[in-house]
DNA sequence: ATTCATGCAAACCATTTGCAGATCA
DNA sequence: TGATCTGCAAATGGTTTGCATGAAT
């Protein structure tokens, strides 16, 4: 699916709920799509959006991210560094979206693998709990990480 | 291990690093031990501690929790409700500490089961990443949860 | 004496909100 | 026209920090 097709799909989701796809929202979506693996903070999204749309206000970015979050279009997450971070949600990867967080250099590597479907079934049976989403983060360090000087394949979280 | 024995053990960990077990810190530890499964926020810890030690300041509680967190005596976590929550860490359960978060009533149920040891081995082999800790939270809902009126076995997170 | 710890109040900073004007259906 | 949306600035609220005092070795 191209970026335009994705935006178009999201546009339909928005209008279905009575929301409008304004220029501000469209550009915010573009930024999120262009940085799909980066776990951007609201401030970072704001700066990137402002480069294309200087009049935008920070509050609008927060409101957009909040809205997209409620509609489950983006996922709001927290790595414990005091800021919320956002990622576009890819439904096909709902059960395959985990993180390796390196405590030496701060790198956050995203890994996609289906590890939990089995466990989720057991949870439903054993606890009577219907899982709609999960979060699985590992902290530790990369064997080849020379503290603070990792090859950064993803956005680092200080 | 009794509470006193646990405090004694932690006292040794503190003095080993040059920190003192002050009355404030001891009472804070007591509160954490008495509420081991409750995921208390700093404010909640503060209120409980103040009941036993009215002169204590909120900043001291924050500093104590931060200290214990750095020493890996408590675990600092975040369920996305805007406040940090704290739990005493039990090393024997390091790999068996997960959460079921009910989106209907806010209940956070803690479950202890060893699901990830296997996966952690695979991560070390496949990614060259040595796991020291992890976090596994499931969101969803309990089948018997009549929204907002769950049997609360644990501390709810609004 | 020196180092560490505390309480208080002020500062900080990410996020939210009130409001008046702009935009879209 | 009425609803939604935006930008700005102010408010909020959890957390941190500066500083002078207090405790412990």
UniProtKB/TrEMBL annotation, chains A, B:
Cofactor note: Binds 1 zinc ion per subunit.
Binding-site residues, Fe cation: 93, 134
Cofactor field: Zn(2+); Mn(2+); Fe(2+)
GO MF annotation, one: DNA-binding transcription factor activity
Keyword vocabulary terms for this entry: DNA-binding, Iron, Metal-binding, Repressor, Transcription, Transcription regulation, Zinc
GO biological process, one term: negative regulation of DNA-templated transcription
Record-linked SUPFAM superfamilies: Winged helix' DNA-binding domain
InterPro entries: FUR, Fur_C, WH-like_DNA-bd_sf, WH_DNA-bd_sf
Binding site for Zn(2+): 102, 105, 145
PANTHER family the record matches: FERRIC UPTAKE REGULATION PROTEIN (PTHR33202:SF7), ZINC UPTAKE REGULATION PROTEIN (PTHR33202)
Family assignment from sequence similarity: Belongs to the Fur family.
Protein name as annotated: Transcriptional repressor
């Amino acid at each position: 699916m191209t970026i335009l097709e994705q935006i178009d799909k999201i546009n339909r989701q928005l209008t279905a709920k009575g929301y409008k796809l304004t220029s501000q929202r469209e550009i915010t979506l573009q930024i999120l799509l262009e940085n799909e693996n980066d776990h951007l903070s609201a401030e970072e999204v704001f700066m990137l959006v402002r480069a294309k749309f200087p009049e935008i206000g920070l509050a609008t970015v927060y409101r957009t991210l909040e809205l997209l979050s409620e509609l489950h279009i983006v996922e709001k997450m927290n790595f414990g560094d005091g800021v919320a971070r956002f990622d576009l949600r890819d439904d096909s990867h709902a059960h395959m979206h985990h993180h390796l967080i390196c405590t030496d250099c701060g790198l956050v590597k995203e890994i996609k693998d289906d590890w939990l479907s089995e466990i989720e079934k057991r949870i439903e049976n054993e606890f009577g709990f219907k899982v709609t989403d999960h979060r699985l983060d590992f902290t530790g360090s990369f064997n080849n990480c020379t503290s603070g000087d990792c090859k950064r394949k993803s956005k680092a979280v200080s």
